[in-house]
User: What shape does this take?
Amino acid sequence: MRLLVTGGAGFIGSNFVRLTGRVRPDTHITVLDAFTYAANEASVADAPCDVIRGDVADPGVLDEILAGFGPDDAIVHFAAESHNDNSIASPGQFVHTNITGTFEILEAARRHDVRLHHVSTDEVYGDLPLGTPEAFTEDTAYRPSSPYSASKASADMLVRAWIRTYGLRATLSNCSNNYGPRQHVEKFIPRQITTLIDGGRPRLYGSGENVRDWIHVDDHNAAVWEILERGRMGETYLIGADGQASNREIVRELCLLCDRDPDEVDFVTDRPGHDRRYAIDATKLRRELGWAPEHTDLRSGLADTVEWYRENREWWEPVKAAVEAKYAEVEEVL
Ligand code: NAD
Ligand code: DAU
Assistant: This one.
């Protein structure tokens, strides 16, 4: 089987390529990645794939790659601008990559009659109140809050329209917050881990009470494989591992794992429009495809992640200072 993996030099895509090398070693992977600031050469340098540098919104490069694809081959579309804070500061690139990029992927999949799996986010459903048992399902109405989530919601709508109107062979998945190795240090968990490793204080937006539903990146990617192989065409599957925790709770665990006082944290300027809580009901995926997460102990998953950042300083150190300088432009300690 041949796979085109877009965004394969980013966090989830590069872990997908590595997982595929372990569990489906006969798959031939071509990564297409624009190598934006979010990519890391080291994430694909020793990965089992060919790598092409290019924009998903460029139909020419898509035609070149897909010319050799047959009816059993597929595209797994991870490429995106993925960070909410960046989308608030400058939304234009999110419209280009996430909306126009997905449009060009859809048109290329249609021209070459290639099956597509579109990777999306639970943020398209907006947020949930704190302290209630509600969770998102495949039937929850779309209600995105940020320019990032609105651009992903737009992309999902395009995919659904191409399925219905053109009969495109495609599936979608909407996953909750991922953690694990090779996540950019702008994101919450790697930012706090690398700050703690460097002796600094973790930074919590607002009250720190916002809740995210954490899943290990390998569990997300294992679910993507289940959907690719056995998912029903045209369907959407929610992916989540019952990993709800407040940001304050996550920081407390990280401090303890780094032998630091959990009360030594800074509360800083809140994110505008900050979603309060996400939670996934993954019943459809579990029942229909028999998927279940392997990393069910969040504390031990976080411990492994801390260890990875300790052992791979050369992977993140070159960009850490610039990321913190950018945050310093907008953050004030409350
Ligand atoms: P990431 O920012 O780590 O990686 C994105 C990759 O896409 C980077 O390698 C980047 O260079 C590449 N890219 C950006 N613009 C491109 C373009 N125009 N053409 C080609 N490549 C381009 O993101 P991630 O966290 O790995 O997320 C991957 C996908 O999963 C995204 O679609 C995101 O919306 C979705 N998702 C992420 C999470 C999460 O918790 N991180 C959860 C659910 C869904
Ligand atoms: O839910 C899935 C989404 O999860 C994905 O679609 C996005 O691509 C991914 O970035 C992530 O979005 P979030 O906005 O939830 O992730 P982020 O890591 O930016 O922040 C997680 C939470 O932590 C959020 O409530 C904001 C908060 N936060 C973040 C940073 C960077 C802090 O309190 N302090 C911080 O320094």
Remarks:
- The CA atoms of residues 83 and 107 lie 26 Å apart.
- The two ends are 53 Å apart (CA to CA).
